[in-house]
Amino acid sequence: MSKDKYTAVWVSHTSISDFLKCPRAYYLKNIYRDPQTKHKIKLMSPALALGQSVHEVLESLSQLPRGGRFNEPLPTKFERAWEKIKGEKGGFPNDDTEYQYKKRGLEMLARVYNHPGPINNLSVKIQMDLPYYWLSEEDNIILCGKVDWLEYLPDTDSVHIIDFKTGKVQEEESSLQLPIYSLLVAKCQKRKTTKASYWYLAENDTLTEKSLPNLEEAEKKILEIARQIKVARQINRFKCHHEEGCFACKPFEAILNKKAKLVGQDEYGADVYIIVQTDEENREGEIL
């Protein structure tokens, strides 16, 4: 088959994770469009709003030369990012919950400012809005994804892959995130990767280094899953593994069943919904 990026199946760490958790959730997040608006649907939550805002600030730093990354105060940048998801738009059930999440975001950025580590060093920017490469031309499958940060290591003329984490749960060892990012970095720029790390911004001043994956094994495993996704799309079969639905697909089913609230559109034109909590649920408090 001749390659055609417009008909290709595009996969990423997020979409692969969606599919592995629940094919039905994958379908509702990545394929389904509302019959009335013709738009995709997106479910916003406080945790997602927090991660989105912090990542937006850190991504803005990656666009700047290292000497000028902190010229504008990070809280100022954060306020602009927060404006897009404040209140109901971020899925916050009340002012107190929003305050707690916003406080966490500011604390993470204060950690970056006080312990910048690689942020103060040279970096490499992949010259693609969305880095991608042909995972399989024969299968017409493309692997894509954005890497949070590439630190340049001048002593070895190599790069260090860094992924920022805003949640409190550590990434599982079986995660395909670093293998996918390692493949993208290998295919989309010329330097070798010699380090890969997570930065758990809610907890740590320093990075957590991880072992580099075997790229050949990683590519084989990811292609196998991508082929499963392609087959599911071809036969239009996306069934939840559980009879009554699961944690991954149930919130999206609530959107389809008119049990969620539309609060706007995101930058890509998707309809953004929130699950409205009852007063009883709100009284239970937010576990932070």
How much beta, percentage-wise? 15-25%
Q: Given this structure, which CATH class is correct?
A: Alpha Beta
What is the N-to-C succession of helices and strands? EHHEHHHEEEEHEEHHEEH
CATH level 3 topology: Lambda Exonuclease, Chain A
The proportion of residues forming helix, as a percent range, comes to 25-40%
Low-confidence stretches: 279-288
CATH architecture descriptor name:
Alpha-Beta Complex
**Which strand order spans the largest sheet, edge to edge or round the barrel?**
5-6-7-8
Counting copies of identical and different chains, the oligomeric state is single chain
Largest sheet: number of strands, sense, barrel closure: 4 strands, mixed
What does the model show?
There is one protein chain. The relative contact order is 0.19. Helix 6 packs across helix 7. The longest helix has 21 residues, at 215-235. The chain is globular, with a radius of gyration of 20 Å. It is an alpha/beta fold and 288 residues long. It has nine helices and ten strands. The protein has a single domain (9-283), classed as Lambda Exonuclease, Chain A (Alpha-Beta Complex), CATH 3.90.320. The protein has a four-stranded mixed beta sheet. A three-stranded mixed beta sheet has the order 1-4-3. A three-stranded mixed beta sheet has the order 2-10-9. Residues 279-288 have low confidence and may be disordered.
